[in-house]
Amino acid sequence: MIEVQEAVIRRGSFELHASLSVPAGAICAVIGPSGSGKSTLLEAMAGFIPMASGSMRIAGTEISALTPSDRPLTLLFQNNNLFPHLSVEQNAGLGLRPALSLSVDEKRAVADVLSEVGLGDLGARLPAELSGGQRQRAALARALLRDRPVLLLDEPFAALGPALRDEMLGLIDRLVLRREMAVLMITHAPEEARAVAGLTAVCAHGRIDGAHETSKVFANPTPELSAYLG
Amino acid sequence: MTPPLPLRVTLGGTIALALIRALTLGALAVVGLRGGEAGGLTTPDLRALTFTLKQAFLSAALSVLLAIPLARALARRRFFGRDLLTSLLGAPFLLPVIVAILGVIAVWGRSGWIADAMAVTGLGRLNVYGMPGVLIAHVFFNLPLAARLILQGFSELPPERWRVAAQLGIEGSALFRLVEWPAIRASAPGAFALVFLVCATSFAVALALGGGPRATTLELAIFEAASYDFDLGRAALLAGVQFAVCAIAALLAFAAQAPVASSPGALTQIERWDGRSFRARAGDGAVIGAVCLFLGAPMLAVVLRGIAGLDDLGPQVWAAAGRSMIVAAAAVILTLALSTGLAALIVALQTRGSRTAARLADLAGLLPIAASPFVIGIAFVIILRPVTDPFALALPLTAIVNAAMATPFALRILIPAIRIAHDDHGRLADSLGLTGWTRLRVLYWPRVRQPMGFAAGLSGALAIGDLGVIALFSTPDSPTLPLLMHLLATSRQVDAAHGAALVLIALSFGVFWFFDWLGRRS
Asked: CA B75, CA B62: separation in Å to the nearest integer?
């Protein structure tokens, strides 16, 4: 589903070289120290930073020339995913229509997805009235409504406590795989990778060299990964 | 148990507070007591009040309404010179009012560029004097300020918000409603209140472009009562009315958390992905172009005529320039002393939980915005006359008044800087036992020197260009440069006046850059 081949992304004096591929229905963890370029990869895939050379394909289509809204993916940020003056329903509804005028069927679809992520009776609330975990659930609901084949997670659960984080990861696991989406998930925590990600890509010194089976990655860590894990 | 305030903070802050109160409320009381019974407000007084409110409201409304499309266009366009342009939007604040008026007259006046063009096309000549002229001059000064405040509001939005919008394909009017409008709604009321406040005490603009019974501001009426009629009771009464108007506006500005001065330099460019359509680009281009013309043409006129007038400059101009420099230097030192003392006290009170005391001290720091420089000047005349000739002290008094007037702006710049230094590393300094001189040098000085340089530059430029209280003393044998320029312009030595204007621009920007550079220098 995701195929990144020898992508080179420059940001100031920093340069990231990345190659990896993730099939549909798989979760791939991207692990590595801060500043190694994990977010840079996701931002380039989402169209927020240009790619200097190489290729990025989703379901066989080259995406590097598309505008952010035309790319077949959704990127969830660590925070500020919601518009603060719109209700949860409206925020989620933006995934169907950016102009916010929903038909009866579309409203029903929004309600269905909200109850799927566990926000069934909170649709009328404003983001400020929700907990951090509930806000990320609302953002996830919008990503599901957008119905794009790829989901990119830029540590959206990093600010949550361990129990809540496990719960959110479980939710991602269930919902996303049911929809056969491919997921790239940035993480600092090896146990997160082990818990839900079948694949793991190590990002170090501005390089990502492929996604490999998680159990093998941790059984035989590269020198960079052992240095990071300590 | 919070430790007591250090003695030097209490002492310095209390002295600064007492001086500011004496210069504002005290001066009003002195003039009021000496003036005696003033009677009620006369019809001309009421007319001045109405005109003041009306022009201040319209100036603020026009400035903010025009600033919205400008800020929007500048926020989403990236072009060569954009950073320079947003920096230059801070420039009119430093521009001597009287110079800008010359420029506005050169473009919009009876024989100005626009009037000439209209005469050629048979539309007749535009009469700029009165309300239109006052509004044009006020928008010239305050549109850039309002635009910068709104741009600041945009740049304070979390960057993810633009990215989420870009990903969801939200553009145009939907983006305006969802992202831009909430930011504007947060920043525009403060900008409106600030512009209203600045325009409500307008003097030089009303003197040069308004005038006549129909277009007189309260400040101009105070000046006329004090200098032509020497009717102190009436001056005090009008000053009291102006105080009330400004106090209400200042409270509103305070409630809207108006920043009072915009931060220096280019604002961070937000990354955006909307507005790529031809229509959006053409619209933004037209807005930016129109504003460049509106702001640039008067400046160009002043510079062009100024270069031609440089030959007409006599030694009197250089003598006046020297006097202005001395006044500005004294005003800068006084401003820094007053505002640093008061800012340190306010932050100390804030961080010790005495929030009411901190707010009161903060409000007292805003008093000079509402005060009339003429009332301060007259109070000095009343007090000093039994002892000495106050008119011989015109220059020191001008420096004192200018320092008081610049203090609110300096405070807005210094308080956040001291506060951030305290919040970030105050506890670390406490735990290391840093006190006294070492604490000042290690904790505060590195964080405060740059804003202090900026505040010094701002107050220096304001003092150099000010045509306010000096007009009251109006000693033609030893004028400051703005006063000399005004005298030249009104005695029909227009070329020399334009030459002097160019010197004045160079001085006020030079002084600003010098102090700002001092603060930034490593």
From this structure: 20
pLDDT: which is higher, A135 or B425? A135
Q: For residue A224, give every residue at least 6 positions away whose Cβ sits within 8 Å of its Cβ, in sequence order, or none.
A: A32, A202, A204, A205
Ramachandran class of B158: left when φ > 0, alpha when ψ lies in -120 to 50, beta otherwise: beta
Answer yes or no: do A46 and B168 touch at CB < 8 A.
no
Q: Determine contact: B231 vs chain A, CB below 8 A.
A: no
Give residue for tokens 């020898």: A6
Q: Is the alpha carbon torsion for A213, A215, A221, A227 positive or negative? A: positive
The pLDDT assigned to A42 comes to: 95
Q: Give the closest residue to B146 by CA, choosing from B96, B209, B189.
A: B189
* Min distance B286 CA to chain A CA atoms (Å): 26
How far apart are the two ends of chain B, measured CA to CA in Å? Answer: 39
Hey, which bits of chain A come out as E strands? Answer: 2-11, 14-22, 27-31, 53-58, 61-62, 73-76, 150-153, 182-187, 199-204, 207-213
Sorted by where each begins, the domain ranges of chain B are 17-520
The partner residue sitting opposite B168, judged by closest CB among A79, A80, A95, is A95
Residues β-bridged to residue A203: A208
Burial of B456 (0-12, 13-18, 19+ CB in 10 A): buried
| Residues 20 through 49 of chain A touching chain B, CB cutoff 8 Å | 46-48
pTM: predicted TM-score of the whole model, two decimal places: 0.86
Question: With contact defined as beta carbons under 8 Å apart, do B371 and B24 qualify?
Answer: yes
Model confidence pLDDT, tens digit, residues B313-372: 888 899 999 999 999 999 999 999 999 999 999 988 888 878 888 888 888 888 888 888
Which of A67, A79, A80 comes nearest B273 by C-beta? A67
Choice among A194-198, B28-32, B463-467 with the minimum mean pLDDT:
B28-32
pLDDT digits (tens, 9 = 90+) for B443-473: 888 888 888 999 999 999 999 998 888 888 7
CA neighbor of B217 nearest in space, from B201, B229, B195, B233: B201
Contact B415/B359 with Cβ under 8 angstroms? no
**CA gap B403, B16 in Å, rounded:** 12
DSSP string, B29-55: HHHHHHH----S--HHHHHHHHHHHHH
Distance from CA of B323 to the nearest CA of A (A): 49
Compute the average pLDDT of residues B74-89: 84
Q: Which residue has the tokens 């409203």?
A: A107
Instruction: Name which of B262, B268, B295 is nearest B78 in CA terms.
Output: B268
Choose among A156, A141, A100, A97: nearest CA to B160.
Answer: A156
- The domain B17-520: what is its CATH number? 1.10.3720.10
As for the ipTM of the complex, it is 0.89
pLDDT at B475 over 80: no
pLDDT of the residue at B70:
95
